[in-house]
Every structure is written in structure tokens, then in C-alpha cells.
Amino acid sequence: MAQYDEAVDGVFVALADPTRRSVIRRLGRGPTSVGELAGGFPMTLPSFMKHVRTLESNGLIRTVKVGRVRTCVLNRERLALVDDWLAEQRATWEERTDRLESLVGELMEEDQ
């Protein structure tokens, strides 16, 4: 469970930055070279590579270097961690609000 929590934390940290979210969004359409990805952002390549390394170290993307070209590929399975965590939270809160709604209904019936 601790490893799961650390992995979820890492994914949320990586997704907290708008540049990294834009990279993820772009990679959702398919693999792309770092050069093409970087061209869409107003920053130097070394600064952009820090974002790529953060995404890669948290497992959201992987990179493959062929010759001089490094290509980024989205790891959709890692994004599923966020889906699972959100689904778990949604189920917990829906259960709690359902119980509260039931209690309020019972109290209103008692008052009548």
C-alpha cells in the first residue's frame, strides 16, 4: 500500500505542472520526439528536459533514443493510478453522503 501511495503521489506531483499536463495531452495523440514537443513551449530545451525527466521518473512517459532523436511515449497504465484513486475517493464520499441523506430523511419523518 505504501508503494501504491508513493506512486500516486508521484503522478499527482508530475501532473501538477501545466507544461507537463500539456505534454501528457499531446502524447495522448501518439509518440512524439522531444524536439517537436519542446517547440510548443516558450522555454529552453534544458528547461523542457527537466519536465520530461519528471514525467519519466514518475512513470507517466518513457523515452526511446534512436540515433540523435529521443521519442516520448505515454504510459497510459500509469494514468490509471489516478483513475483508481479518484474512483476510490468518489465511492467513499458517495457512501457518506448517501448515509447522511438517509439520516436526514429519517429525522424529517420523525418530526412529522
From TrEMBL:
Reading the lineage from the top rank, the first entry is Bacteria
CDD domains noted in UniProt: HTH_ARSR (cd00090)
The record's listing under InterPro entries reads:
ArsR-like_HTH (IPR011991), HTH_ArsR_DNA-bd_dom (IPR001845), WH-like_DNA-bd_sf (IPR036388), WH_DNA-bd_sf (IPR036390)
* Gene Ontology terms, MF aspect: DNA binding; DNA-binding transcription factor activity
Can you name the source organism? Kribbella italica
- Cited Gene3D superfamilies: Winged helix-like DNA-binding domain superfamily/Winged helix DNA-binding domain
User: What is the official name of this protein in its record?
Assistant: DNA-binding transcriptional ArsR family regulator
Keywords from the UniProt entry: DNA-binding
**Stored Pfam families:** HTH_20
Q: What is the lineage of its organism?
A: Bacteria, Bacillati, Actinomycetota, Actinomycetes, Propionibacteriales
